[in-house]
Amino acid sequence: MGQSASSIPSAPSNRTLTSSMSSVPAVRPVLEERPVVEERILPFGEEDEGHRDYISDLPDECLACVFHSLGSGARKQCSLVCRRWLRVEGQSRHRISLDAKADLFHVIPDLFERFDSVSKLALKCDRRSISIGDEALELISKLCPNLTRLKLRACRELTDAGMAAFAHNAKHLKKLSCGSCTFGSKGVNAVLDHCAVLEELSVKRLRGLTDGAAAEPIGPGAAALSLKTICLKELYNGQCFGPVIAGSRNLRTLKLFRCSGDWDKLLELIAVRVTGLVEIHLERLQVSDRGLSTISNCVDLEILHLVKTPECTNAGLISVADRCKLLRKLHIDGWKTNRIGDDGLIAVAKRCPNLQELVLIGVNPTSSSLGLLASNCQNLERLALCGSETIGDAEISCIAAKCVALRKLCIKGCPVSDHGMEALAGGCPNLVKVKVKKCRGVTCEGADWLRASRGSLAVNLDTGVIEPLDASTSDGGVQENGADHLIPAVDQVDLPSSSSGRSTLSKARMSLFAGRNFMVCTLRRWSNTSNNAHKT
Question: What is the pTM of this model?
Answer without folding.
Answer: 0.77
